[in-house]
Design a protein that fits this description.
single chain, 800 residues, alpha+beta, 4-stranded antiparallel beta sheet, 14 helices
Amino acid sequence: MKKIITLFLLPICTGVFAQKLGTLSIEKIMRDPKWIGISPSNIRWSDDSKKIFFRWNPDNADRDQLFAITPTNIKPVKVSIDEQKALVPEYGEWNKKRTLKVFEKDGDLWLSDPKTGKIQQLTNTVDRENSPSFSGDESKIIFTKGDNLYSLKINGGELVQLTNFTRSAAATPALPPAGRRGGAARKGVDDKAAGNQQERWLKSEQLELFDIIKVKDKDRKLDSIERKEFETKKLKEIATDDRSVGGVQLSPDGRYITYRLAKYPDGVKSAIVPDYVTASGFTEDIPNRTKVGGPQTAFESFVFDTQRDTVYKIVTSNIPGIKDLPDYVKDYPKELEKRTKSNEDRQVVIRGTYWSEDGKNAVVEVSAQDNKDKWVMKLDPSTGSLSLMDREHNDAWVGGPGQGNAGWTDNTHFYFESEASGYAHIYLLDVTNGTKKQLTSGKWEVQSLQLSNDKKTFYFTANAEHPGVTHFYRIPVSGGEPVKITTMKGGNEVSLSPDEKWLAIRYSYSNKPWELYIQPNKPGAKAEQVTNSTTEEFKSYQWREPQVITFKNRYGSDVYARLYVPEKQDPAKPAVVFVHGAGYLQNVHYWWSSYFREFMFNNMLADNGYTVLDVDYSGSAGYGRDWRTAIYRHMGGKDLTDQEDGVKMLVDKYGVNPKHVGLYGGSYGGFITLMAMFTEPDTWAAGGAIRSVTDWAHYNHGYTNDILNEPYNDEKAYRLSSPIYFADGLKGNLLMLHGMVDQNVNYQDIIRLSQRLIELHKENWELASYPVEDHGFVQPSSWTDEYKRIFKLFEQTLKK
C-alpha cells in the first residue's frame, strides 16, 4: 500500500456544539481547544503584592484578556487598557531593601517606587538601553547600550560611559611629515626620532644655525607639556575585532568590569525549509537552523581593571580536567591517539560573574562546550585567575533541572544546584575555605529555586512525595528538613508574592485542566479556587483518571507509566502504547498533560476497547541523573526496550494479545515509533510516527551533541540511533505524518526515509504530508485528519 499523500487543507466548521459531549470522536476532541475552556496563564504579582494579574478567556473571545484579583477579593476583574499601559513589568532589578525597582520598557529605563506608586522615566532616547541594575552603593543605575556599559546617577542624572568597546584597535591618524608647510609634529613622539636620516640631519642643522627656530621649538615643547597637564583622560579603547560582546558586568565597588567575547564561525551552512502555501503564490524559502556537528561559537572572557586601566583574560588553562578527553573516544583508537598527542584544552564558556554584595568575592560557572563538565570557580579579579570550588562531571552530559539556579546567601556563601548525588539538589559553598554542604537530599529533584528577600530561606518546587506530584517547600539556608507548604495532589506551579505572604498557585490534576488558586504562605493553609475555566461540554464526559503504575524493566529498574483500561475490552484484546515527545520530558504524573489531545485520544481508544499505556521511558525527566542519561550514545536502546517491557507487562497482567499491539507518538515519540517498527518488528503490528527524527545527523547541535556527540567524531552512536539505517526491518504497517514547514524536525527527514523505503521495495507504509504545519500543528483540520488516519490504522490492523 505504498503511497505518498499530500493533504491540501480545507477549513472545517468549528461552530457551537451541544452541551453534552456524548460519544468521543476525532472531530470532537481535535477541535480548537477553546471548546475545553481556556485555563489562566502568565500569572504574576504586582510589585506591591496587592494584585495578581493573569491571562484568561472565560468568554471564549478571540484573544485571552488580562484579569486581576486581590488576595482579599478573588473575583476576577478585567484590567482596563489604561491600567495595562501603566503596569510595571514583572522583570527588573530591586535595590537591597526592595523599596525601588529599575526596569527596561520599550528600550528606555524606568524607576518605580511600589510603596508610593511613583514611576520615573530615566531615559528617553532612540537607542535601546537595557539590562539595568543598581550599583553597589545604589546611587547609580548600571545599564548597557549597544555593546557598552554605562552608569546614570539616580539623583543628579550624570551619565558616564564605563566601557569603550571598538571593532578594532585605535589607529593613529596619518600626519604630514614635520617641517612641511601645514605639518605638525606627531603627538607624543620625539621630533629628533621623526623622519629618515636625512631629515633628522637637516633639522639638527636648522636648530644650530637659527635662534628663532630654537625659541619656537622650546615654546612648542612647553605647549605640549601644558596640554598634557590639562588633558582629560580618555576612556580606554578595548578592541573586540570581529567578536561580539556579551555578559558585561560591573563589580559592586565599581573597579572591575567582566565581559565575554564570542567569535561566531564563518561559512556555516544552514538548512532551508520551503514554504509551498504562501500569499504570494510562489514557493518561499524559510532560513533554518544548522545541523549537529557544525562549527561552534568560541568564547573568551576578560576583566577590565578600571583602576589600573588594563584588560586581561580570565585564565582557563589551569581548570582541573580542562584537557580530559571524553570517555567515548576510547572506541576510536586513532582519534584517541591524535587527541592525546595534541593535548589541547577543551573549549569552555564562562557564565556569571556572581559578585558578593560587598564586592569582595566573585564566582563564575564554567561549562565545557562538550558538556561533560561544569565547574564552580572563584575568580580573583585582580589577576583573572580561577580556583576550583566545585566540579560536576558526567561521562554522558551535565544537565537536569536547576541549571543556572545560583547566587549568594551572604558575602561568603554561594548556593547552586547539582546532580552530584544522582538527583538535582541544593548545595552551599563557603568560598573562604571551600567547604561544601548539601542542603537537600533524596531520590527526588529540586525543580525550581528561589531565595527569600531576607536571604534566610529557600523556597523550591520538588517532586519529593512522588515523581509525578509537585509541591512547594521551604528550607532554611543553613539546611534542615524541608517544610511542605502546598497540599493539593497534582501539579502546583507557585508564584510567591513579593512580600512573601501569599502564594498564587496554578494547579491541575490528571483529568482536570489548570486553574488559579490563592493561598496564604503557611504550611497546610487552604488554597482557595479563583477560576473555573472548563466548559459544561468538557465536564459532561467522565474523563478517566489514568492509573499511575510501575513495572520492572529488563534491567531491574522501576518504570512509571499511565494506564488506561477499557471498561469492556475488545474481543481482539488490542493495546496501544503512546510515546511522549521531547525526549527529556515527563508525562506520567498527576497534573494536566501538555499532551491533552493525546490524553483525550487515549480516552477514546479505551472507549473502543483498547488498553493504552503511556511510558516515562529512559531519558524522561523527573527521575534523576542516571535515568536522564540512560540513552547516551544509543537513542532507541533502553528507551525502546522500556516500551517493549511495558508490552510484556500488558500481556502478562491485562490479557492483551501480543499480536495486536501498536504504538504512536510525535517528535521523539515518532522517532521511537520508527525504531520500534524497524528494530523490533515482531512486537508491533502497527505504528503511527508523527514529525519523526529519522536521522540524528540532520537534527540540531544543542540537543543532539549532548547525547550522541558529533557525527564525525562518534559515528557509531549515530548509526546505532538513526532509524534510516534500520528501515529494512519493517514488517508491520507504518503510517508516517509530517508537517511540510517543520522548522524543528525538517520535512527533509521524512522525505529521505521515504526514498530509503522505496529503494528497499517496502510496500506496507504511507506518508501523510501537511503543507501548512510546522512542528507543532495548529490547524484543527490538520489535527483531525492526522488522528483519523492513526485511528483507522489501529482499527484495521489491531482488531483482526
